[in-house]
């Protein structure tokens, strides 16, 4: 997987994650503001099942699915970046991506890779010109 593909997948996942979060928060906020939830103090004890409640439930589900898809896309982009950097002679980028991903800092590693990371698929062996005798 080329760096360009990994970068597009990662940025697309970021956009999907942001859109999903905004949609889910907006659906929950709209439901709360329109008294869809039956409250007893701080606790939600029931739901007024109005057409608005069903609409907000649907939007919340769509937002949640977008978040799940973004997480899967981010994981695939990280694995693609690992496979890409494993082809390099120097394993520094590979180790940084691997260790930061394992220790839950993969987002920062992927941002650094997208901005400044090398492309392991572009290292094609150059033909060597014959030496004149």
Question: Can you describe what's shown?
Answer:
It is a single chain. By secondary structure, the chain is mainly α. The protein has one domain (3-116). The protein has four helices and two strands; from the N terminus they run αββααα. The protein has helices at 3-33, 51-85, 92-102, 106-116; strands at 37-40, 43-47. A two-stranded antiparallel sheet has the order 1-2. A hairpin with a 2-residue loop joins strand 1 (37-40) and strand 2 (43-47). Helix 2 runs antiparallel to helix 3 and helix 2 (51-85) packs across helix 4. The radius of gyration is 23 Å and the shape is elongated. The two termini are 41 Å apart. The relative contact order is 0.17.
Q: Any descriptors?
A:
single chain, 133 residues, mainly alpha, 4 helices
Short description:
With 133 residues, the chain is mainly alpha-helical. The chain has helices at 3-33, 51-85, 92-102, 106-116; strands at 37-40, 43-47.
> Could you tell me how far the N terminus lies from the C terminus, measured between alpha carbons in angstroms?
41 Å
**Cα-atom radius of gyration:** 23 Å
Helix content: 55-70%
Characterize the biggest β-sheet.
2 strands, antiparallel
Lateral strand order in the biggest sheet: 1-2
Indicate how many domains the architecture comprises: 1
Q: Which class do the helix and strand fractions yield?
A: mainly alpha
- Give the overall form: elongated
Number of helices: 4
From N to C, what is the helix and strand string? HEEHHH
Describe the SSE topology.
Blueprint: H1 3-33, E1 37-40, E2 43-47, H2 51-85, H3 92-102, H4 106-116
Antiparallel strand pairs: 1-2
Helix pairs in contact: 1-2, 2-3, 2-4, 3-4
């Amino acid at each position: 997987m080329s760096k360009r593909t990994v970068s597009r997948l990662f940025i697309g996942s970021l956009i999907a994650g942001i859109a999903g979060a905004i949609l889910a928060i907006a659906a929950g906020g709209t439901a709360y503001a329109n008294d869809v939830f039956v409250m007893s103090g701080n606790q939600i004890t029931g739901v007024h099942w109005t057409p608005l409640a069903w609409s907000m439930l649907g939007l919340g589900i769509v937002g949640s699915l977008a978040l799940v898809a973004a997480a899967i896309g981010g994981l695939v982009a990280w694995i693609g970046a690992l496979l890409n950097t494993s082809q390099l002679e120097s394993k520094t980028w590979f180790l940084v991506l691997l260790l930061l991903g394992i220790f839950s800092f993969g987002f920062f590693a992927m941002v650094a890779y997208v901005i400044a990371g090398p492309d392991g698929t572009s290292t094609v062996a150059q033909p060597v010109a014959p030496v004149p005798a």
